[in-house]
Amino acid sequence: MPVRFAAVGLDHAHIFGMVSGLLEAGAELVGLASDDPDAAVCQQLRTMQPDVPWFDDAQQLIDDPTIDLIATAAIPVRRGDIAIAALEAGKDVLTDKPGVVTYDQLEAIKKLVAEKGRFWDVVFSERFNVRSAIKAGELVRAGRIGRVVQTLGLGPHRERDRAHLSGGSGRPDWFYDVTTYGGILNDIASHQIDQFLWLTGSAAGDVVSATVANFNHPDHPDFQDFGDMTLASDTAQGYVRVDWFTPQGLPTWGDGRLVIVGTEGYIELRKYVDIEGRPGTDHLFVADQQGTEYIDCSDVELTFFGDVIADVTNRTNTAVPQEHTFEVSRLGILAQEKATVRKLF
Amino acid sequence: MPVRFAAVGLDHAHIFGMVSGLLEAGAELVGLASDDPDAAVCQQLRTMQPDVPWFDDAQQLIDDPTIDLIATAAIPVRRGDIAIAALEAGKDVLTDKPGVVTYDQLEAIKKLVAEKGRFWDVVFSERFNVRSAIKAGELVRAGRIGRVVQTLGLGPHRERDRAHLSGGSGRPDWFYDVTTYGGILNDIASHQIDQFLWLTGSAAGDVVSATVANFNHPDHPDFQDFGDMTLASDTAQGYVRVDWFTPQGLPTWGDGRLVIVGTEGYIELRKYVDIEGRPGTDHLFVADQQGTEYIDCSDVELTFFGDVIADVTNRTNTAVPQEHTFEVSRLGILAQEKATVRKLF
pTM for this one? Predict the structure, then answer.
């Protein structure tokens, strides 16, 4: 029997990748539900999946004993409650990042995961779905650059894409409201927090310093168009910068980079574009004591969604350790809480 | 009459570039002196300049009324005193960075600069002598990427070069002693502090957070092989990472980068090497609202040493504003003072 899942909370376009990843891994999508049926993402998913039934009441899906897994990419502030309801009903959960925006949500989820024996996986996407990031992990684990002393992650994002889903009218209102998206560090820096802990082999970390800023959005005074943070673990440092300043002239949504400094070398990833360089994505550069090397990572295998499905079936925790997901989520909220808030307006 | 200068304090190899820069700009080198005549750098400079007289007593040069300018690349902790003595004698000063390691030195220099009407220029080299950095300044000033919201500077350095001056035996003892080199942030991050203020158009800045660490030097417990800091000015943020982890396999001493994020685009510099990419140095990449562009900066004109000489002759301050030099120096000391110290041993 295939794993049966429902998609509940269809506000962010990340749901497309989550659904297609689960379908390709062999799961069956048995229902859709969302608070805002008029949202562009929701309508597009229904168009893409015309045979999957729509439910006006998400609770019907959550209560359905034949469903194993609830996937969600709701507005960030609502993801926690959807996960809590799903866990209470004995479902596994796969959520877009950020999975939570408050400590209360996180604590409730931790408690339910323990009580119900289900998992709560947050798709910190990059490390799971970006082939160069997976390759970097393999090289680091193999000792190629010695002991990792710092990760430096840059996550610039495009705010308005000419070809954006919304048809060019821009982002939805919740995108600009910190009470609904949860803050730039908890949202888009969660990728880099995840990679920091993972690549430095750290079970736990701390936020040394953080800043969020509105540098260029006078019409949305509470929007955070820039954020950065310094992280520390027992053995290493981390730095993250995220922003919404990708210009229209870049041929993709963001020039995501990761630099991993080790005691015996370093690795640089140009994840989505090699500006004025090689075509395609997933460019990995390494310098070690012997020389330099370019590695095209386009043939690296992606296993994340298959691992999630196997975890549902086998009651294992192979896709991503549960405690790691909790710690990344805690650090995202902590960064947001500790951040100095700068407004130029 | 050409500007006459003496080189006093010959411990760091940066003196070679300072001397050749001044000579090429038309100045005349009239004397050499240094506390440690046996230092490798000192001996090499004497060999390179066999016709320039050596003085056992540096004060003779400092007191010589026919000398206009004192250049120094002494051990960092001694540069301040050399500058103070030179200013007291009515000389202009050109010093390797860091120019000072304490606030007391800086205050004494500020006072003397005001009293004597002479200048104290610190060679924050990169912006003056790195063609891609000069080009980046031109593009920023021309508004190519809008208003700058962050500079991110990476300054990895090689600790032991196979072809190092020392003949392969490594760095001198003072290199590993924080009381003589002044700390990694004040030393090698001064480049990036300079570029932060300059490229964001900021007269002043602050250190938000800083860390220095010994990650991999158990034999030199007080050595700082890693440092980073977050900077802020009225309008922008800055981040700097410096380290001594450049591996032997990289074909140059360090993969220095600068990323300048603006409201309308960004610029990346690969200053000294384009790893597994284009040959040579000074690679500039820009993305703006229209597209992306690669700019080879190898033909950008260098004017710094000529400007210094003109400043000596004309009593002007064109090479670098004096207040800017003071502020960069203050921030370097402040970063070192505020830094959390991490030792893995």
Answer: 0.96
